[in-house]
Amino acid sequence: MEMNIKNCIAILVILSGCQTVSQEENSDRKYRIAYNVWIDPEGDNYDVFSMNMDGSDPVNITNLDGVEWTYKSSGQDLLFISDKDTCDRCYLLYSSDAFGRDPKRIGGFLLKDSWHSTRKNGEEIIVTPKVENDSAFYILNRNGELVQKIYTGLAYFTDPEFSPDGTQIVFRGAQKRFKANIGYQDELYVVNTDGTGLRQLTYYPENDTTAEWWNYHAGPPFWEPNQNIITFHSVQQGGSYLFQINPDGSGLKKLTPDSLRVGWHSWSSNGEIITFDAETGTDEQPDYDIFSMHYRTGKITQLTFDSLYQQSPVVVEVRE
To answer: Measuring CA to CA, how many Å separate 193 from each of 126, 164, 190, 253?
Structure first.
């Protein structure tokens, strides 16, 4: 696939079933997009940047050696993992605002490279810890203290996301432990936060063989509270698309066009804007840039245009 990365992409897709958010609510909130940038293509150096919603004013907000990745925000708090205080790719959790100000370490549990989520207005965070001989999601308080463990019973589990009321999580799981295992296939699962009621949510098309073993069958989920839908990306029919599905497994719908190979994504807190990364460039020289999409209209706009790998955008409210 070849794309012209010097031109913005604007695609209008009419999407049904969206909840209208008032202009007054929109005007009361200001957002920035935080995203991960591979600073040094020859080395293992990633930083977190943030920019305005129109792509202007990009700023490196971590500016450290090693690996810093953001995967979640909660209101005006941006969460990110970093190996700055540990060993190479040994991650701890931190928080800051949208400009990287007032960074704080959240506890001492080492984490796997996984998305995470919050509930109770950001006071509790669910993570995927790197703890020997313990196969559970951990719920932490803002001091990083263990509040609860959730055991899923699956060999593979990662990328947990709380339901809007905080009583359930949706996550990526598989019956096999490693992606390279024969028969491994990641799907989305839902489980109650007491560990009961595990059920499979997504079912990859049986006759689709276009996903390689390292591709996502079901990418990290986002449980959007305004529409009460779950969104995720999936490599299907030779492309990589963003999908939505209802929490009961009904209403599966593709959201992004065939012209974009979409990756990780997140939503603004008002349910109006989805931001995602997508491949640009060519098959021989792929690149990743950040895009935004208005959910009600389907209008997509490319926000970054340079040759750096830019992925995993997260919408965070601006602290005045």
So the answer is: 10, 12, 9, 27
- Between CA 74 and CA 95 the distance in angstroms is 10
Of 275, 185, 267, nearest to 225 by C-alpha is 267
104-105: strand order across its sheet: 68-74, 77-82, 92-96, 104-105
What b/e string do you get for 47-72 counting C-beta neighbours within 10 Å, with b at 16 or more? bbbbbbbebeebeebbebebbbbbbb
- pTM of the complete model: 0.89
Q: Where does residue 20 rank: exposed (0-12), middle (13-18), buried (19+ CB within 10 A)? A: exposed
Decide if 243 contacts 255 (C-beta within 8 A).
yes
The H-assigned helical ranges of the chain are 23-27
Sheet order of strands, 117-119 included? 117-119, 124-127, 137-141, 146-150
Per-residue tokens: 3: 């794309």
Enter the tokens of residue 25: 């609510």
Rounded distance between C-alpha atoms, residue 128 and residue 119, angstroms? 15
Q: Do 235 and 218 form a contact (C-beta atoms < 8 A)?
A: no
Q: Which of 8-22, 127-141, 202-216 has the lowest mean pLDDT?
A: 8-22
β-sheet bridge partners, residue 105: 94
State pLDDT tens for residues 159-203: 999 999 999 999 999 999 888 787 789 999 999 999 999 999 999
Residue 218, C-beta contacts closer than 8 angstroms, at least 6 positions apart:
172, 186, 187, 188, 202, 204, 232, 234
pLDDT at 253: 97
